[in-house]
């Protein structure tokens, strides 16, 4: 039986996180160890990229004790839509899932968000398990946020619904293209900036080749990064306070994703640009002396492009930011840094944001 790497303990829910290579072959045994009665049925939700690689291996870990179904979504951000959500709910109903069934979200963040939202709302909520297969999903699979997109903004339709467990088979990451490693690494870097600067040193010293990170380094980095999120989520499960720090880089990042078109940039690529912007904004608003040039150099070494896409207009980006969930009274609230590891949330005037956007887009 796999050992728990971490455990999330919040006010309303406790669940384990498993991190190791090869865990997909132990899925059924891990579920049995959750202390619940046997699930009446299992629905594996995956996508067209991950499904052919791993769905049958996950399914093979189960005996014939309960019905098992596989629902395969289109790969990509477009699956976080109302149309896909409806199709997924219809699939579950046709499979006669009941309140004792479980949904296994096998895939990246899109699959985890969509399957988690379906689990949160199917018959007013059933259990689900996160099985992330991307580095990016190490962030989204923990914390209980689920949701889908609206044409006017990302993740505007959703629910808090913690998983019964997170099973992170890091062996599955080695089929990812380098672009996806880079997307996920941005969230690790975010956790370094907001709470654990040691993570930034780990990446600089040990992540020398994104296509060949040793599995022990990968496992340790993921555990350390998830630990940051775990500590914050445990204190603020429903984002009433410090959990907002996890949105560092996301205010502009989400706006860029919406304006450039979902899928044009990866989520992590957009967040990397957003972090660069937030660091410079921290200097203007707080007088912080963050070394954004050193940040740029390290990010360029890792292959990031921190240029705001030319297709984006400053005024339109601002409009997207004002629709963000973190906005209040039409004021854009940014996560800023006093220094590495010391974040705070501040409303920022429109003119300040627009001036910096125009400055950045004319460089």
TrEMBL record:
Pfam name, any one: DHQS_C
Enzyme class, broadest EC rank: lyase
Protein residues bound to NAD(+): 109-113, 133-134, 145, 154, 172-175
Any single GO CC term annotated in Swiss-Prot or TrEMBL for this entry: cytoplasm
Top-level lineage group: Bacteria
Metabolic or biological pathway: Metabolic intermediate biosynthesis; chorismate biosynthesis; chorismate from D-erythrose 4-phosphate and phosphoenolpyruvate: step 2/7
Catalytic activity: 7-phospho-2-dehydro-3-deoxy-D-arabino-heptonate = 3-dehydroquinate + phosphate
Matches recorded under InterPro entries: Dehydroquinate_synthase (IPR050071), DHQ_synth_AroB (IPR016037), DHQ_synth_fam (IPR030963), DHQS/DOIS_N (IPR030960), DHQS_C (IPR056179)
UniProt binding sites for Zn(2+): 187, 250, 267
Subcellular location, record wording: Cytoplasm
GO molecular function: 3-dehydroquinate synthase activity; metal ion binding; nucleotide binding
3-dehydroquinate synthase N-terminal domain boundaries: 71-182
Free-text remark on how the cofactor is bound: Binds 1 divalent metal cation per subunit. Can use either Co(2+) or Zn(2+).
Needed co-factor(s): Co(2+); Zn(2+); NAD(+)
GO annotation (BP), single: aromatic amino acid family biosynthetic process
Family: Belongs to the sugar phosphate cyclases superfamily. Dehydroquinate synthase family.
Record protein name field: 3-dehydroquinate synthase
């Amino acid at each position: 039986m796999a050992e728990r790497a971490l455990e999330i303990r919040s006010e309303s829910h406790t669940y384990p996180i498993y991190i190791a290579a090869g865990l997909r072959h132990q899925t059924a045994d891990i579920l049995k160890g959750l202390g619940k009665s046997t699930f009446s049925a299992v629905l594996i939700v995956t996508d067209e990229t991950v499904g052919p690689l791993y769905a049958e291996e996950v399914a093979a870990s189960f005996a014939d004790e309960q019905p098992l179904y596989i629902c395969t979504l289109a790969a990509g951000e477009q699956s976080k839509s109302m149309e896909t959500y409806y199709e997924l709910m219809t699939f579950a109903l046709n499979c006669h899932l009941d309140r004792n069934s479980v949904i296994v979200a096998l895939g990246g963040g899109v699959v985890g968000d969509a399957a988690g939202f379906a689990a949160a709302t199917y018959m007013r909520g059933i259990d689900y398990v996160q099985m992330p297969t991307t580095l990016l999903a190490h962030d989204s699979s923990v914390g209980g946020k689920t949701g889908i997109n609206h044409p006017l903004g990302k993740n505007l339709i959703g629910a808090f619904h913690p998983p019964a467990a997170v099973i992170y088979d890091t062996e599955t990451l080695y089929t990812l293209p380098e672009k996806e490693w880079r997307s996920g690494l941005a969230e690790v870097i975010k956790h370094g900036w907001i709470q654990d600067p040691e993570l930034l040193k780990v990446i600089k010293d040990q992540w020398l080749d994104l296509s060949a990170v040793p599995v022990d380094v990968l496992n340790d980095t993921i555990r350390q990064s998830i630990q940051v999120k775990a500590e914050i989520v445990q204190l603020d499960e429903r984002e009433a306070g410090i959990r907002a720090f996890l949105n560092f880089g996301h205010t502009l990042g989400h706006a860029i994703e919406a304006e450039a078109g979902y899928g044009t940039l990866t989520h992590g690529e957009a967040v990397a640009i957003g972090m660069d912007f937030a660091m410079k904004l921290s200097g203007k608003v707080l007088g912080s002396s963050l070394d954004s040039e050193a940040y740029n150099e390290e990010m360029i070494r890792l292959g990031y492009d921190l240029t705001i896409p030319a297709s984006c207009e400053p005024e339109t980006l601002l409009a997207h930011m004002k629709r963000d969930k973190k906005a209040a009274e039409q004021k854009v609230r940014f996560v800023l840094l006093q220094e590495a590891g010391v974040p705070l949330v501040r409303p920022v005037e429109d003119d300040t944001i627009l001036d910096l956007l125009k400055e950045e887009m004319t460089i």
